[in-house]
């Protein structure tokens, strides 16, 4: 169960001096496993882990002086161990449960930049006090498609994916795995259940559904824990309205989120802004803002705060909440895949740092995404769940604004460019980040 973020952690470790690293992400995306079972044991002599949710009594180690030397001494006394700051990793897990531990990261950055200190949490975005500028912040998302491919153990297929040689048999196998990914999603426990050996498709699908059910129930418990009863009820209703609104789109583009009808007597963005912002800060939902004029930099200047499409953070959770069985997921005749494909592209872009994302919509024409490259080029990206790559909306965009290039993401293998339009298979959405 390797993770691509491992390389970022390794680069952080190799710095001559460093700020503490703060690993953010939704609950159950594998933050603890990555640090405590992969990165830590491989790269350090010891891992000194303090889990403030599992063992809240460890908060007493931060009750007084927050100087690094005092905290290290307290860790040594509490765990009856020795701490070598040049060889060991200090890991504060679920650091949001202990404000003093979170505050201590500032002092590690200022007074002990040689130390290796990592903290993680699933409610970081909801905190009201945060050591701004004193941490190296990284985010861990659900498994992207490449990580799902890595988890399958098919190294030759992974190499073919990385080289983008997806023709013939390679494309068939990658596309089949992509359909599985849209069923399973990227939550680590669901991925592990899917790739368990010596079980059939029916049993693995049932295991994945059971994992998803437990995860959704866990998210709902967190609503009450961190938001209070009344606000939690609104957040839960909004959370379940996202897949319901997405499924109303069949072959067309996902429409902007509609506020009316979600909560009783709530009709506007201002009425729902609190629950929406809570879900985004908790990393459970993502916004994509459609722009209704000529795209130009900076794109945020053209976006309207109250106008956006709303996606879930994981396609497997989306599929589960809509109760779509595995056989339907694999059936090419079923017409739900347009919004699933767009949700997939959104999560792939988000996992590579593109957030918020943007699209384009004027009159009846819509282009699902506008991707800004590292040199400032705005590339229109059309998303189609089937094999058809001719899109009137994209043609309209090209005629109006004459972009240097455009991309269509479809079910077909990589094809020859048609003028400025490049045709990519959907599972290559991550490579937009390399443009």
Order of helices and strands: HEHEHEHEEHHHHHHHEHEHHHEEEHEEE
**Treating each run of at least 4 consecutive H or I residues as one helix, how many helices?**
16
N- to C-terminal distance = 28 Å
Output the radius of gyration: 23 Å
In this structure, how is the largest beta sheet organized? 8 strands, mixed
Q: Give the overall form.
A: globular
Q: Tell how many strands the DSSP assignment holds.
A: 13
pLDDT < 50 stretches = none
State the strand order across the main sheet.
7-6-8-9-10-11-13-12
- Structural class category: alpha/beta
Strand content: 15-25%
Mean of residue pLDDT values? 93
Helix-residue proportion? 40-55%
Number of domains: 2
How would you portray this structure in words?
By secondary structure, this protein is of the alpha/beta class. The protein has 2 domains: 6-139, P-loop containing nucleotide triphosphate hydrolases (Rossmann fold, 3-Layer(aba) Sandwich), CATH 3.40.50.300; 145-434, no CATH class. Helices cover 43% and strands 16% of the residues. The chain contains 16 helices and 13 strands. It has helices at residues 6-13, 31-43, 68-79, 99-111, 145-151, 155-163, 169-184, 188-194, 201-227, 229-247, 269-281, 299-302, 315-321, 326-330, 337-351, 392-401, and strands at residues 21-24, 47-51, 89-93, 116-121, 136-139, 285-291, 309-312, 357-362, 365-372, 378-383, 406-410, 415-418, 421-425. The strands form 2 sheets. An 8-stranded mixed sheet has the order 7-6-8-9-10-11-13-12, with helices on both faces. A hairpin with a 2-residue loop joins β8 and β9 (365-372). α8 (188-194) runs antiparallel to α9 (201-227).
């Amino acid at each position: 169960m390797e993770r691509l973020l491992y390389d970022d952690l390794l680069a952080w470790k190799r710095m001559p001096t460093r700020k503490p690293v703060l690993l953010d992400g939704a609950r159950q995306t594998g933050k603890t496993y990555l640090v405590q079972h992969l990165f830590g044991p491989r790269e350090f002599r010891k891992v000194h882990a303090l889990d403030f949710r599992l063992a809240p009594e460890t908060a007493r180690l931060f009750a007084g002086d927050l100087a690094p030397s005092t905290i290290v001494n307290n860790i040594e006394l509490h765990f009856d161990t020795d701490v070598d700051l040049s060889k060991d990793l200090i890991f504060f897990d679920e650091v949001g449960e202990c404000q003093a531990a979170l505050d201590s990261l500032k002092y590690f950055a200022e007074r002990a930049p040689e130390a290796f200190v990592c903290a993680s949490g699933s409610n970081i975005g909801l905190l009201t006090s945060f050591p701004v500028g004193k941490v190296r912040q990284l985010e861990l998302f659900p498994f992207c498609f490449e990580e799902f491919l890595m988890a399958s153990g098919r190294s030759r297929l992974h190499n073919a994916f990385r080289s983008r040689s997806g023709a013939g048999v390679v494309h068939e196998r990658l596309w089949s795995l992509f359909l599985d990914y849209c069923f399973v999603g990227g939550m680590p426990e669901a991925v592990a259940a899917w790739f368990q050996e010596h079980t059939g498709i029916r049993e693995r699908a049932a295991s994945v559904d059971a994992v998803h059910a437990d995860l959704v129930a866990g998210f709902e418990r967190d609503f009450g824990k961190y938001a209070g009863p009344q606000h939690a009820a609104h957040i839960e209703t909004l959370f379940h309205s996202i897949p319901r609104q997405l499924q109303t789109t069949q072959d067309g583009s996902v429409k902007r989120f509609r506020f009316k009808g979600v909560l009783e007597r709530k009709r506007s963005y201002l009425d729902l802004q609190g629950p929406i912002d809570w879900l985004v800060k908790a990393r459970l939902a993502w916004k994509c803002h459609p722009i209704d004029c000529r795209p130009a930099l900076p794109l945020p200047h053209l976006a309207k705060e109250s106008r956006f499409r709303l996606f879930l953070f994981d396609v497997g959770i989306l599929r589960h909440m809509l109760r779509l069985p595995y056989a339907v997921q694999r059936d090419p005749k079923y017409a739900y895949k347009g919004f699933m494909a767009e949700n997939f592209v959104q999560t792939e872009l988000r996992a590579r740092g593109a957030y918020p994302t943007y699209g384009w919509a004027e009159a009846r024409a819509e282009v699902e995404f506008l991707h800004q490259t590292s040199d400032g080029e705005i590339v229109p990206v059309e998303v189609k769940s089937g094999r058809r790559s001719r899109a009137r909306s994209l043609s309209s965009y090209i005629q109006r604004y004459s972009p240097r290039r455009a991309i269509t993401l479809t079910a077909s293998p990589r094809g020859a460019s048609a003028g400025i339009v490049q045709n990519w298979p959907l599972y290559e959405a991550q490579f937009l980040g390399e443009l």
